[in-house]
Design goal:
By secondary structure, this protein is α/β, with parallel strands linked by helices. The protein has 8 helices and 10 strands. The chain has 2 domains: 81 residues, no CATH class; 175 residues, 3-Layer(aba) Sandwich (Rossmann fold). The protein starts with 18 loop residues before the first strand and ends with a strand.
Length: 271
């Protein structure tokens, strides 16, 4: 499905036809659901079946990926500590959704986990293969590849800075939950809409002449795999619970980091 095939008046979170075009970012529009207050962009990535243009890893994009390879190294260590406070990773079956260049996938393996990874970006999968010998899958979590052979297979699943990127977040969480064992844990982090810059930007747009969007464009992107929606903590907690996940941890920053990151950090156990 692409943007022209989806009716953006239908909220991607609650499903009601109550969303209205609210913030014009010039290149795109933020829709706001009048029922559940969900904010999402009027843009969808092409599904893999319709994306016939495969991007090859070349010198230019390799240099770009090299420059970003270590940018989340310390954050991944915080995420690993977070997971280990809730589950023993030795022998655990873990699916890392949105594995990127495979750094966290590698960390899981160093802890003895049976780690699987999903990464839809062709060049990131190729980079991970060439740099670290890591084999990541292109099939999304709702694909038959996972949904027919891995139902209730995993002890844990991770979505690190992923849920804001997907076309349909509710369906993504539902699909992930089907792959979790009873008692398995879904770990997630994502930017929070309750950040100060987001709130200030909304007020500027509403009350200043010329409808200034201020920082709002920095939260969203129509680039492939860009940010398509931003959650509030309560929206994401409600989504977890509606999918049969009991919230066992919720925070806006990792305990071993020295500042508030204005993120939503959740762990939910399948009941």
């Amino acid at each position: 499905m692409n943007s022209s095939e989806y009716n953006f008046k239908r909220c991607k979170l609650c499903g009601t036809f109550a969303a209205q075009a609210t913030y014009d970012l010039r290149s795109s529009i933020i829709y706001v659901c009048q029922h559940c207050d969900f904010h999402f962009l009027n843009h969808l990535d092409h599904t893999p079946e319709k994306n016939h243009c495969t991007i090859q890893l070349n010198i230019q994009n390799r240099k770009y990926l090299d420059s970003r390879a270590d940018e989340n190294a310390s954050l991944h260590l915080s995420r690993l500590t977070f997971m280990q406070s809730h589950i023993s990773l030795s022998g655990a079956k873990v699916l890392d959704i949105g594995a990127g260049l495979g750094q966290f996938h590698s960390l899981l393996r160093t802890q003895g986990a049976e780690s699987h990874g999903i990464e839809p970006s062709d060049i990131r999968r190729e980079y991970a293969q060439q740099q670290s010998g890591i084999q990541l899958q292109s099939e999304l979590v709702d694909d038959n590849y996972w949904q027919t052979s891995y139902v209730q297979y995993f002890d844990a699943m991770t979505l690190w800075d992923v849920i804001e990127h997907v076309n349909f977040p509710k369906e993504t969480i539902e699909s992930a939950c089907r792959l979790l064992k009873t008692g398995g844990i879904l770990f997630l982090d994502t930017p929070s809409r309750e950040s100060l810059s987001y709130g200030i930007s909304q007020k500027f747009y509403r009350y200043m002449p010329g409808k200034m969007s201020l920082f709002l464009p920095s939260f969203y992107s129509t680039a492939p795999y860009g940010h398509k929606q931003i959650f509030t903590p309560s929206q994401l907690s409600d989504l977890f619970e509606s999918c049969g996940l009991e919230i066992i941890f919720s925070s806006r920053s990792y305990t071993n980091r020295f500042f508030s990151s204005h993120k939503i950090i959740l762990a939910g156990r399948k009941v």
